[in-house]
Amino acid sequence: MILRIRQTCALLRRQLADLLTGPLALALLPALLLAGYWAGGESALLWSTVAFPALLVVAGVFGRTPAPAGMETGPPAPGASLEEAIDAALLRARDQGGMTACMMLELENHAALRNTHGDAATGQAADRVADRLNACLRRRDRVFRFDDAIFGIVLSPPRSMTPEAVCKLAARLQGEAQRPAPAAPEGPRFTAAIGICLSAGGLAENGSGLAAVATAALREAATHGPSAIRVRRPEPGIPAPGIRPARPQDEIAQALNGGEIIAWYQPQLCTDTGRVSGFEALARWRHPQRGVLLPGAFLPHVEKAGLTGTLQAIMLREALEAVGRWDGAGFTIPGVGVNFSPTDLRDPALPDTIAWELDRNDLAPSRLKIEILETVVSTSPDDDTARNIRRLSDLGCRIDLDDFGTGHASISSLKRFSIDRLKIDRSFVRGIDTDPRQQRMVAAILTMAEQLELETLAEGVETAGEHSLLAQLGCGHVQGFGIARPMPPEATLPWLRTHSGKLQAPPDLRKGAV
């Protein structure tokens, strides 16, 4: 109760100080003094000159601590930091008895758009995003920019701030970041993830702590698909999510050896028949404390530990064994896709290893789809990588070119690497049912693929409208959250039974089918 009274008094003092020192009060003060003199004479003027400084003392104007650098209106001062801005916002929040928040916003596909649109156009689009963010915020809010694609946002505490209001503002900022420029509708179009840290009102809170929690929330949002928003509060004694053991390599090695990192599967559908045309194997870590982690949370540590080969062996073995289980249950899945890193593709023993695994599982090589990034094709010379891919193609494996459209692969490289199918990147698929520019770009890719006798698969299909239009344009296969999210191995057979039942049902009962 006493704390609440103190907070209320602090709030009233702050409001009184803002009133007495605001531009309107200073502009009207001479007129008020003159009116007092006319109405009451010299005594009224004397009392007014004494009362105004007294009110300033009561409001605490003379004892107010100036905000640190970076909290003034306008652009941040040179050398100002995000942490300093948060510290100043926390001081004001405590003074008012309110709360503040820090947001971290990342333009997720910034790097991919640089490959497709160039550095200059992408940089200009990111600059426009910065301008839009500032335009959405208030005069006291601060925006900091890091690494071209990441923005830190500090909300100065208003008289009333609620978590709901912060989330609504985050959604508005996300919409502004993702909105294409009216003058350049065919230019770069971003997706934005946002992590939010709401202050809990503790006296131990500081700028660096809130910034770290907001960054952790951003990492969590980035692993849950494009355009996600995650909110966290600082929790004393509980570390931020992520992999921060004393030796991450040891934890990664234990996870690989202990069966915690396994293959999950995302189905792919044929647009002509609606039947399952394959699965893609995707690595997931079932962490005992942090739940299921996506590759972005642990792959960098796998690479630093030099364990990519171990992870690749696990993914290949489990994917081929899954095909055998599907066959045994009566579902003949044409193939399973396994991603191979540039390091794996340079291994001279890779073709022999894959041939041995196929033989061990009694599977035809065509049941395995080797997924390689377009950047590998566009940058690799005629070296071990190219020779390995050709050997795998000669063996009978199918070669999928992943993320097509982001790596500038030439037509000659498609032939040199024996590509069988193009996987159209999700950046071209998103919003295709409403965006004529996206439709023209995908139609051009499909026409080229048809002339080169290549199959096509669209990634990142999230809506029935996108699915339908891709089928109309002639894309052979689709994959994405709109069909099914990646699922653990034990969930694949129930999903296959459910999907098969939808296909066999009469047309009027297929409303739920994708």
Main attributes of the structure:
single chain, 514 residues, alpha/beta, TIM Barrel, 14 strands, 50% helix, 16% strand, elongated, disordered N terminus, disordered C terminus
| Total of domains | 3
Q: Main sheet? A: 8 strands, mixed, barrel
Structure class: alpha/beta
Order of the strands making up the biggest sheet? 6-7-9-10-11-12-13-14
CA gyration radius, whole angstroms: 30 Å
- N- to C-terminal distance: 57 Å
Helix content: 40-55%
- Just give the CATH class of the largest domain: Alpha Beta
Give the tally of β-strands. Answer: 14
Which runs of at least 5 residues are low in confidence (pLDDT < 50)? 1-8, 61-79, 237-246, 508-514
Percentage of residues in strands: 15-25%
What name goes with the CATH superfamily of the largest domain? EAL domain
Looking at the structure, what is the overall shape?
A: elongated
> What is the overall pLDDT average?
80
